[in-house]
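Project standup — Tuesday

K.O.: blocked on the structure for the chain from last sprint. Re-posting the sequence here as requested.
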Amino acid sequence: MVRERLGHVPARAREHLGGRPVDDSGQKDLAWFHPEGRELSDADWEDGGLASLGMFLSGAQVGDASFLILLHADAGEAAWTLPGQPWADGYDVVVDTGDVGTDRVEGGQVLYVSSRSLVVLRATT
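H.V.: unblocked you, prediction finished:
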């Protein structure tokens, strides 16, 4: 994980990422996701029962890779619908503290995330 962090600009950004658009596609420098594959709403942030969230770090503005980090805190498995475009066509699994059972998943498909785990995905186009 340290090698991945040090090797990519979005993971070591020195400026505050504020959810600003990086280009005309609609992709943002930072976005937070619900397991349904949509960006988190204000109501989602207040949902005490939500045990999973995703953080998308875009490398588009600096010509580097983009990552989707899935955090799951519940004792049961979580079904994650991965965001498609403008975020990514698909994702390669970089780090998985559980067992998602695959190395690659397409945007819009469901990825089952193990209990109390972290999954780091590299976005691909």
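K.O.: great, moving the ticket to review. Strands lie at 30-33, 52-57, 67-72, 78-81, 90-96, 104-106, 110-113, 117-124. The first strand starts at residue 30 and ends at 33.
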